[in-house]
Amino acid sequence: MRLAIGILGVAVLAAHGPDRTPDYLPEGDAQAYLTVERGGAPQQNFVVLTEAVAVKETGPKVTVKKFGEMYAFSPAFLAVPVEKPVEISFWNLQPDDEHDILIVAPDQTVLMHWSLPPLSKTPFTYTFHKPGIYSVICALHRPEMNAQILVQ
Length: 152
Description:
Immunoglobulin-like, about 10% helix
């Protein structure tokens, strides 16, 4: 199942509606942008952490009351080379909150969806085949929890 983001909310609802979309890696036309594998021989390694910015357990209470719980990816920006395998390991540091990632191509096509269970490390080797800016979005905590990957 491939989704065009067009309006981000529509794609996110499709990914996390009542019949939640299962995890999937790029396949078919999506592999023109990105191939993903476990292991491989990466030329670079990155770790992206989930960060609790403002949560009900630790506050600040006024921020949580006004905006709700807030999370972020750290770092929120990576630059990677085109056609070179890189390992990106997503670490969910929260013990009681699930996150996920949608990787979105420059043309707004959702390439993959993967769940990040609490207290988990999720490494994949990514090879980006087209230059551009790819978005990484936590569909559960959008639009604030996002990052960008510049492929050059």
